[in-house]
Every structure is written in C-alpha cells, then in structure tokens.
Amino acid sequence: MQNGIWHIAVPLVAAGHHLATMFLTQFNFEGEGPDREFFIRQAHEFGYNLDDYLNALDRMPTFSAEKVSYILAYDMALAQFITDLAEQSLKIVETEKSLSKSEDKYRSVVETSISEFIGIPSDKDGFIR
Fold it and tell me: Which pLDDT does position 93 carry in this prediction?
C-alpha cells in the first residue's frame, strides 16, 4: 500500500480455473487516511487539477475494520456460492456428454444385434438396409 488507500481482492476459482475477481477497493480504514503528499505530488506530476483531485480523495469512503470484515465475509460467501454453481454446472455438462456417448454406443449395439438376431441384412457399418 504505497499511497494509504486500501484494495482487497477475492478470487473466484472453480475446478482449478480462475473465473473472476471481486474487489473492495479505494477505501480507507477509520483512523487512517491516504498519504495526501503522495497525491499532491501525483497531481503535479500528471497535470491534474489539485483541488478537484484532493476533493475526490476526500470523498473516498472510510470503513471500520468491523464493516470491512462483514463486507469480506459476504464477498467470500458470494464467491463460494458462485464457485459451487460453476462446479455443479461443469459436472452436469460432463455427465450429459458421458450419457450421450453411452447412449450412442448402446444404440449402435442394440441396432446391430437386432438386425443380426432376426436376420435383417445390414450394410458394412451395421446399419439396417
């Protein structure tokens, strides 16, 4: 934290893949404040209007440690919920692919077996003519 402003990130990872990141960013803790000298130097360096820049800095939210803990607990629960949904969706897709493959294989076996069992001629691929 080089300038006194806080940023906290909560990653969303499902099945080993990073899906997104939720942020609680640009805030101050009660009793702390941004390094105003840093922002004054930055305003001069980049040609920002100093009054506007510092006014924006002063409007930055300030949270108690307790409130940040509540926000993070909510964000982590939401991240877990989203991750669980993504992982369940992946399992459903994998199951549907496996089921489709199994159905195709079963259908092929049944069609070939029926035609051979009752003596119906079939082509070289086993399809009934």
Answer: 92
Which residues pair with residue 23 across a beta bridge?
A: 9
Q: Is 35 left (phi over 0), alpha (psi -120 to 50) or beta?
A: beta
Q: For 64, what's the count of Cα atoms within 13 Å in the CB-facing half-sphere?
A: 3
Token match 């002063």: residue?
58
70 contact partners, CB below 8 Å, separation of at least 6: none
Virtual torsion, Cα 20, 6, 29, 10, nearest 10 deg: 20
Cβ–Cβ under 8 Å, residues 19 and 26 = no
pLDDT in tens, 8-17: 999 999 889 9
User: Would you tell me the crossing angle of helices 50-58 and 36-46 to the nearest 10 degrees?
Assistant: 140
From 6-15, 70-79, 112-121, the region with the lowest mean pLDDT: 112-121
Element spanning 106, H or E: helix 65-117
How far apart are alpha carbons 122 and 128 in whole angstroms? 4
As a whole number of angstroms, the distance between CA 85 and CA 79 comes to 10
